[in-house]
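Run log // design_07
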């Protein structure tokens, strides 16, 4: 495992300050991207437990895996926004910030005067982002929007799974989609501010973000085609294209994209060169029409090989292939190790292994990847920085306004 080097060139967002009233995944993952690229991110949390994602599980040495993933490199301010003193502290922080991000329940930020429109009217250079489930208007505006629910509403579940059973994605796809559009929206708004001097409000919804990701099946259905069938790991119109068991209990996925590849697969992997000229299998249309027979031929050949042997033969034949890995195997992936993609970040539970962000500044700075904060770790420092006295801070402690 590699460790970060202290000496590096400046990151793109160094000098940018972000204040985030955030919870769960969408906003925290967006602001973590900003922190990784050098921004100072101040995370505002409730004093009575903080971001509820802190309590999702205890898998990361006692810390929640979601929280560790989405919140490194931030400063934690634990303050009750319903108390005027707590709200005033956050307003002072926002006055000096470049970016504000929030994903509170619909209407909650507006009641506090922390919605994007209100803040940008008060601070014209501020880039302020409202992240919601379904957007500020429309009949769904006030609906609760958890990731699985939005996956259903956006149609992702309808195209994921087996012919018999639709399933949700195994990662929070709606949250991640909204996070990445919020992140790119902030970057675009900062560029605009650089030329106009004005920031401005930004709105991102989980539904609209994931609906955009549904581009291919959505456009297929809208413009006269049939929505794609759920096919598990198989492909609806290509054969062979599936995962096949090997002699050592593993599974190898392969994809034959054209008839030339089928010829190579038949000769070099299946040991049946005659299949390339057999009218029952010579074309993709023929193989798809006889999918069960095609898959049986491939399954028999790969079932006599170990996964390593199968991968070696497929690679030698120029056939696209992959192992079907579980998440523990991904954590030990030889490609990630060979490219030095692992680092350690600090946390209240000690050092934790973390994956470098996928954007690499070749020959330049490396992502910041700061520590995961304890709840309220930076509260007193931040309050003093906005002019609050020790007596005021002590009173807020006494009244449970801060933690």
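design_07 sequence
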């Amino acid at each position: 495992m590699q460790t970060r080097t202290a000496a590096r060139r400046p990151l793109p967002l160094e000098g940018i300050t972000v204040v985030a009233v955030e919870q769960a995944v969408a906003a925290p993952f967006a602001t973590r991207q900003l922190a990784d690229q050098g921004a100072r991110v101040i995370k505002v949390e409730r004093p009575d437990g903080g971001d509820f994602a802190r309590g999702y599980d205890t898998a990361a040495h006692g810390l929640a895996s979601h929280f560790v993933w989405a919140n490194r490199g931030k400063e934690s301010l634990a303050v009750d926004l319903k108390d005027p003193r707590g709200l005033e502290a956050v307003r002072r922080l926002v006055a000096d910030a470049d970016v504000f991000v929030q994903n509170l329940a619909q209407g909650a930020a507006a009641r506090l005067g922390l919605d994007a429109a209100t803040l940008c009217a008060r601070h014209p250079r501020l880039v302020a982002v409202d992240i919601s489930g379904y957007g500020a208007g429309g009949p769904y505006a006030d609906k609760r929007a958890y990731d699985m629910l939005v996956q259903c509403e956006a149609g992702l579940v309808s195209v994921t799974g087996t012919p018999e059973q639709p399933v949700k994605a195994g990662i929070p796809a709606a949250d991640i989609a909204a996070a990445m559009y919020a992140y790119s929206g902030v970057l675009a708004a900062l560029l605009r501010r650089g030329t106009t001097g004005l920031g401005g409000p930004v709105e991102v919804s989980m539904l609209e973000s994931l609906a955009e990701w549904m581009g291919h099946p959505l456009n297929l259905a809208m413009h006269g085609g049939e929505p794609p069938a759920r096919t598990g790991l198989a492909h609806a119109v290509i054969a062979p294209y599936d995962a096949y068991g090997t002699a050592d209990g593993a599974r190898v996925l392969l994809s034959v994209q054209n008839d030339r590849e089928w010829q190579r697969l038949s000769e070099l992997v299946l040991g049946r060169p005659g299949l390339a000229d057999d009218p029952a299998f010579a074309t993709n249309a023929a193989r798809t029409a006889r999918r069960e027979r095609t898959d049986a031929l491939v399954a028999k050949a790969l079932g006599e090989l170990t996964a390593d042997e199968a991968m070696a033969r497929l690679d030698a034949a120029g056939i696209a292939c992959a192992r079907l890995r579980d998440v523990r195997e991904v954590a030990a992936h030889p490609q990630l190790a060979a490219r030095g993609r692992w680092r350690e970040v600090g946390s209240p539970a000690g050092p934790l292994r973390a994956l470098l962000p996928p954007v690499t500044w070749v020959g330049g700075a490396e992502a910041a990847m700061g520590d995961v904060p304890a709840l309220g770790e930076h509260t007193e420092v931040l309050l003093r920085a906005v002019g609050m006295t020790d007596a005021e801070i002590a009173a807020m402690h006494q009244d449970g306004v801060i933690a």
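Residues 1-6 have pLDDT under 50 and may be disordered.
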